[in-house]
Structure prediction request, 668 residues.
Amino acid sequence: MQKLYVNPLPVRIWHWTNAFGFVLLIATGLQIRYAGLIQLVSFKTSVAVHNWIGFVLIGNFFIWLLFYLFTDKIKVYHPELSPMKYFRASFKQIQFYGYGIFRGDPNPHHVSVYRKFNPLQSMMYQIIMMLLVPIQFFTGVLLWDVARFSAMIDTFGGVRVVDTIHVLLFIFFCGFIIVHVYLATLGHTPLAHFKAMLTGYEEVEEEPARGGSL
Amino acid sequence: MKGSSVMGATILSSRLRVLMLTGMAALALLGWRADARADVSDLSEEDQACLKCHDRPDLTKTLENGEKFSLHISGKAYAESMHNETSCEDCHDSIDAKTHGKKPSAIESSREYALGMKDICEDCHKKKFKEYGDSIHAALIRDGSTKAPLCSNCHNPHTVQSSEKVRPIADTPCASCHKEIFQAYSKDVHGLERTAKGKTAPICADCHQAHDVKAASLGEGVRDTCLSCHEKAVETHANWLPNTQRHFDAISCPACHAPGAKRRVNLRLYEGVDQVQLSQKTGVPQFVKRAIAADEGNLGLDERALWSLLKEMNEDNVAGNIRLRGRLEVSSAIEAHQLGEKSTAVKDCNTCHQSGAEPFQSVIVTVAGPDGRPLRHGIQKDVLISANSVNSVSGFYAIGSTRIRLLDYLLVLVVLGSISVPIVHMTIRRLFRRALEKREAEKAAAAARDRDQV
Prediction:
């Protein structure tokens, strides 16, 4: 087994803060939205906690953004510019998760310091980090003080439109977190990827690696 | 030097004392004069001549409509009134002293007479008259109302007192038309305090204005009036209420401060870039006509009917950009005057922020009518939770209670799907692994058998 340092400290700090923050945001978000069904915490406390965590995660987002903007590690997010190459690699990856993994085939993606994401991860994380997460933060800030941002809210079609976008993304993140955790267990051992995100070192077999996380 | 300055100060002080004494004497004299005016003998000779007949309580006239009209003017009350320096002739200049009382003059009704006299008030009370002209009362009169108040319905011109003078609350003229509302007020926190302490609590005109009276359910006037006395209300609410300003914008004060009141959602139409409340123009009854046409079963507009009503109104409207903005309010003016003590106000977020909350069970849509009164039409309550209303009711959303049901189903579907996919994937992996292990074992066994045979 070869050990590769693929998750530097700022990325790990961002990841785990983000992970726990998102879980808390989902929990408080459920409490806020379903106050009549769930009575674990008061509505007022849930709103206060939800707002605070939201702002912490906005700050945390900038740790991630600045780290990648000012280091060469940004290469892990560089898209594959050849569509043919990209679709071929994506198809292989889908084929692996949908069939090859059952037969014990090797993971077609080989992890390296500058290529830690497989094509599906690369596309998904770019969409999430550069589009969905900022939209979620932005709509969250608008809803945090509806009167202060009323002009902007009206520009986007009104408070109901902004809230609907926020809730749709909330639903997406609920699903994403469950699938993300499952795919993280598909390393060469069920805890391999979790350990890698704690220590920073990914254990990579000399042979093509099995599994990957999304 | 020091001595002269002390002396100077003493002279100044003695002069000041003389000046003050003179001032006090002048004030006392004026006071005496004012008291002295409160007598019939202080009125002009002409006025006293009028009162010779009109101070008789039994003096009446039968009008054309059969109404018995009192012509009695109490000389004492008149002399004590704010109009004691206005002579009879100043207002009744059309009367010919030579023929008055000798030749019968036809008056249709007391209402007609008051209507004819009201413009005379304008001669002196120009500012108040203009305010009154912009009021809902004046609009109703222009619209042909025979009940809306004229000057003399609220202010008896012969007995009118200073508005500064605190009178028993039962003497409030508004009570004669708005009887039930006044009864509610007299028992609420303001009414009880007014009765007990006088001016420390507001009465009708303090909140609704005496002359520039507008429909309370339109605009933000009444809320701002509450805040003009309860100056620290925003600050104290901000200590515990998240999104305070939004709550102030979207909820009328009585909705929380009138315990037990039935609440409703009032979707109000706003137009143009500045988003001013839409008012229907005179002679263009587009809102009422279209709302009735769209509401086929008379059950209230559903989401599609509301959407098409807004679309049609947007097409017609020059200012464009017609939007609905919701507001929580109590469902009647009587309930708006049942305000309780601060301790009884709604503070529990769950009152509104949960599915099926009481305030969201009744919904109406409103525009300001040409006469200043609100024009309303019922809306089906499910409009607030329908995915089809995202656009039409875009300006109103209350967390929990008006959440879109379709999103709830989507959440359940996504969560179940996200759990099911890994379970199915994991199960297939295990089944394959077993099959592979079995095949490997069989291969190994076959290889072992082959080795044994060799």
In short: The first helix of chain B runs from residue 2 to 37. Strands of chain B lie at 60-62, 68-70, 263-271, 276-277, 323-330, 363-368, 374-379.
